[in-house]
Design goal:
Elements lengths: L13 H7 L39 E4 L5 H9 L3 E4 L6 H8 L4 E4 L7 H4 L7 E4 L9 H6 L3 E3 L6 H16 L2 H9 L17 E5 L3 H12 L3 E5 L11 E2 L3 H7 L2 E4 L13 H6 L4 E5 L8 H9 L3 E6 L21 H5 L4 E3 L8 H21 L24 E8 L4 H9 L3 E10 L2 E9 L3 H12 L4 E7 L1
Parallel strand pairs: 1-2, 1-3, 3-4, 4-5, 6-7, 6-9, 7-8, 9-10, 10-11, 11-12
Antiparallel strand pairs: 13-15, 13-16, 14-15
Helix pairs in contact: 2-13, 6-8
Bound molecules: 1,4-dihydronicotinamide adenine dinucleotide and 2-oxo-3-(phosphonooxy)propanoic acid.
């Protein structure tokens, strides 16, 4: 199929047009997510147009990293061509595969760098079926009109519950006791095993996960302090501290819930371990770059840190198998030899509940973007949506024009649209990129073609799509 970005309508017959035009809006979609996400903010129109979308079979979708069945089903039900792989791909294979797809769905492992995205000539949208979007070059994507969606909090509870479990496991050395029993050793000890009641939990990054964790920890009798770059409302009796150092000096358990950013790289390193209380515990289920692992190994060997739980690593394997060795991370064997260290394979968000909720949420956002052009919930483009076209508007078309945010563009666009009846129009910008949607009524296929060509010829153009 010809590029969905290169949407060139032809007038000879409907089927041929369908090949070049994106789909009609289907207003029946609303996010089934129970969390009231941005997607649920649009009110469904009662007499919305439920057309069989044109040419959805031409939309090619590549899903990597074992995206949940619920999400796959939604995309297949649209008639899209869906290719599904359980693991991520090495860069050369990814580049081959990404060349002709319109939609790609990934999780935390797949790196969509500018180098990879440069090859993705047909790509219109990326779905991160997870929370983190650090694996995608968001700026490059925006500048090339590629929308990026994620699921901002569908797995937050799963991560918070895992951390609660780990706090108790570390305090009671449960991992070691269990391993010993598996090896046939009875080792009944109470030395340096603690209750968590009355202990202080220090949360670094008090966002969706940190805040959820705060409530759970307090309900088990812990005192909670947190450090965040933002001034945030403390839940329950939690208390915000002014500096990371203050948190490290006070907390018995420290847990990291910050995104991967240049500022959070190596945020917990040798200096920070020195500032911690003797015998404290560290948990990292955020990103592998946040904790300096060789420094952690030293701090555990010296006894400064009494236990740790790691769910994320600087280098993670592409799929399941026997990979957690020194080839992957040079300190792998040293890490594995430590006592009271829980190592998990990036499973913070890996629960049935989280994965199916994410599948539905992100697949729905992708479908709405492909079919209707709605960017509600996009992480790299301005959020723009128009109410759905209705059954009373059979010959309406929706213009989506992504353009450089420079002076004079709207005047030129409106000169082009001005010959038609513009029913509704909305535009917004984010940084260097602006997103315009306009519904125009009573347009013929020939006019759509002309509109498309005129918009494409503007120097401000990043991407034009015409949906009907
Ligand atoms: N292990 C796993 O499976 C999972 C890991 N994650 C990771 O957890 C991270 C956090 O997730 P959420 O709580 O949903 O994110 P969030 O965006 O809701 O919260 C992050 C918080 O960190 C704060 N922050 C940013 N930079 C900071 C800094 N330098 N110092 C202190 N605070 C800083 C922000 O202000 C914000 O309050 C995600 O970005 C993702 O990388 C998320 C889900 C699952
Ligand atoms: O949601 C996130 O950011 C996570 O880290 C979970 O990633 P995953 O979907 O398990 O690859």
């Amino acid at each position: 199929m010809t590029s969905a970005r290169d949407i060139r309508p032809r007038t000879d017959d409907l089927a041929a047009q369908a090949q070049y035009l994106s789909t009609s809006p289907s207003a029946s979609f609303h996010s089934p997510s129970s969390h009231g996400s941005a997607l649920t903010r649009t009110v469904p129109v009662v007499n919305a147009k439920h057309l069989k979308p044109f040419a959805t079979e031409d939309i090619k979708v590549l899903l990597l990293e074992n995206v949940n069945q619920a999400g796959r089903d939604i995309l297949k039900q649209q008639g899209y061509q869906v290719e599904f792989l359980k693991s991520s791909l090495p860069e050369d294979q990814l580049i081959e595969k990404i060349r002709d797809v319109h939609v790609i769905g990934i999780r935390s492992k797949t790196k969509l760098s500018a180098r990879v995205l440069k090859e993705a000539k047909n790509l219109i949208v990326i779905g991160c079926f997870c929370i983190g979007t650090n694996q995608v070059d968001l700026q490059y994507a925006a500048e090339h009109g590629i929308a990026v969606f994620n699921s901002p909090f569908s797995n937050s509870r799963s991560v918070a519950e895992l951390v609660i479990a780990e706090i108790i496991c570390l305090a009671r050395q449960l991992g070691d006791r269990s391993n010993e029993m598996h090896n046939g050793t009875w080792n009944k000890v109470s030395n340096k095993c603690w209750e968590i009641r009355g202990k202080t939990l220090g949360i670094v990054g008090y966002g969706h996960i940190g805040a959820q964790l705060s409530v759970l920890a307090e309900s088990m009798g812990m005192s909670v302090i947190f450090y965040d770059v933002l001034n945030l409302m403390a839940l329950g009796t939690a208390r915000q501290v002014n500096t990371l150092e203050e948190l490290l000096r006070e907390a018995d358990f420290i847990t990291c819930h910050v995104p991967e950013l240049p500022e959070t790289k190596g945020m917990i390193g040798q200096k920070q371990f020195e500032q911690m209380k003797a015998g404290s515990y560290l948990i990292n289920a955020s990103r592998g770059t946040v904790v300096d692992i060789p420094a952690l190994i030293e701090a555990m060997r010296s006894g400064k840190v009494a236990g740790a739980a790691l769910d994320v690593y600087p280098n993670e394997p592409a799929g399941n198998g026997d990979y957690f060795n020194n080839d992957l991370n040079s300190w792998g064997a040293d890490l594995r030899s430590l006592k009271n260290l829980i190592l998990t394979p990036h499973i913070g968000g890996s629960t049935e509940e989280a994965q199916s909720a994410i599948g539905v949420e992100v697949a729905t956002a992708l479908t709405r973007y492909v079919n209707e052009g709605s960017t509600l919930g996009a992480v790299n483009l301005p959020e723009v949506a128009l109410r759905s076209l209705t059954i009373d508007e059979p010959s309406h078309a929706r213009v989506v024009y992504i353009h450089k945010n420079i002076p004079g563009v709207l005047r030129k666009v409106n000169e082009i649209l001005g010959d038609h009846n513009v029913d509704k129009q909305m535009t917004d910008s984010r940084g260097d990129v602006a997103y315009l949607m306009a519904d125009i009524s009573d347009v013929s296929s020939t006019q759509i073609k002309e509109l498309y060509q005129s918009l494409e010829s503007l120097s401000s153009r990043i991407m034009t799509r015409i949906l009907y």
